[in-house]
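Team,

Forwarding the record for the chain on the shared tracking sheet. I've put the sequence and predicted structure together so nobody has to dig through attachments.
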Amino acid sequence: MMLVVGRQRASDGGTPSRLMVKHSSRGALGYVFAVNGQSERAIQLLNSMTKPTKRRLDDEPYSVALILIGLKENQKAVHWLEQSYRGGPFWSLGFRSDPILESLRNDPHFRQFMSKVSYPAAVNADPHLGVVG
């Protein structure tokens, strides 16, 4: 997995730029921390992403769910996936095939959520693609 880290100017405009990881990458990074035994770092990242702010990014619920999956907080992860789906970002299109979500496939909350998820039908699509068994 490759994470992209970019330089971004601090919001006040007068301070030097600092390294910030984009939200989608922060979710992946938090997941990696969690599954590699660095739970404290994952929780710190999770807390920074879930504290109330004026501006929220569309992919943030999915990113929060990734960290929670890594921490084995499945029910909370499903809650955030539901928020992501309701928000409509493109991440939700991959819920049926996302390998990171594999650990949720047998979770009753995830199965119930996925039973409610609908996607637009693709023209000339292979009906066997994206099917969760």
